[in-house]
């Protein structure tokens, strides 16, 4: 059985990160962040992509997105997002050349076990980087929209796993805040981070076995356990 290359599965969430070329700054001013989020919002339906979470850091972008039956939509979305940002910055700075690394990283995520954990991992990036004390203080992530603190939240998608957070929208918002405030285990961080870095799967052993059968791939490194969801 061949070793694993990039795996893209229809209707599964994918944790995606695209970094600046040589880790250069890609978001230098508020307009840079605003344009990228606007492009993501505009293009998601064109390419049949659901968007569950995002966080734009100075030199990279984290997304949690799911392609439809046409899995090519994910690669097309990332290509157009990168191209638009590159053209804008090159025009602005009177330069030429690439802005991003040529290849983005991605990891297929097990929805019912790790989707919420990946949302938390993505939206807590600025907190882990000591840029803000609270996720709510960072304007360039999906957190405020996810908890109803932003009026511009209607374009984010809702997976059925969000239903476990409550019976009403308000209840889900409040319990998501609680979920975000919980301590995150070292094992959960390690599982999500390593799966992304290695282009592997974020999920339980059973999930990995299922994907191996579906895609005909072999997974060498496996995460253990499942994230805590007390909310």
UniProtKB/TrEMBL annotation:
Question: Which molecular function term from Gene Ontology is one that the record holds?
Answer: transposase activity
Q: Which domain of life is it from?
A: Bacteria
Q: Which InterPro entries match?
A: Transposase_17, Transposase_17_sf
Gene3D superfamilies on file: Transposase IS200-like
The record places domain Transposase IS200-like at: 9-125
Q: Which GO terms describe its biological process?
A: DNA transposition
- What name goes with this protein? Transposase
Which species is this UniProt entry from?
Pseudomonas karstica
Q: What is the lineage of its organism?
A: Bacteria, Pseudomonadati, Pseudomonadota, Gammaproteobacteria, Pseudomonadales
């Amino acid at each position: 059985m061949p070793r694993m290359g990039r795996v893209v599965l229809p209707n599964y969430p994918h944790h995606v990160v695209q970094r600046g070329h040589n880790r250069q700054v890609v978001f230098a001013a508020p307009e840079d962040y605003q344009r990228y989020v606007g492009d993501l919002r505009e293009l998601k339906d064109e390419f049949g992509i659901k968007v569950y979470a995002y966080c734009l850091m100075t030199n990279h972008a984290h997304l949690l997105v799911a392609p439809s039956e046409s899995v090519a939509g994910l690669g097309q979305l990332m290509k157009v997002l990168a191209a638009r940002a590159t053209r804008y910055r090159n025009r602005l700075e009177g330069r030429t050349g690439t802005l991003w690394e040529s290849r983005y990283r991605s990891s297929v995520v097990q929805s019912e076990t790790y989707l919420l954990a990946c949302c938390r991992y993505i939206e807590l990036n600025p907190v882990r980087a000591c840029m803000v004390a609270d996720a709510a203080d960072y304007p360039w992530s999906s957190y405020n929209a996810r908890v109803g603190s932003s009026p511009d939240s209607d374009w984010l998608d809702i997976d059925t796993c969000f239903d476990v957070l409550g019976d009403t929208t308000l209840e889900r918002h409040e319990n998501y805040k609680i979920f975000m405030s919980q301590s995150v285990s070292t094992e959960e961080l390690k599982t999500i981070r390593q799966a992304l870095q290695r282009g592997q799967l974020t999920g339980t052993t059973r999930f990995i076995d299922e994907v191996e059968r579906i895609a005909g791939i072999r997974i060498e490194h496996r995460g253990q356990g499942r994230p805590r969801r007390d909310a």
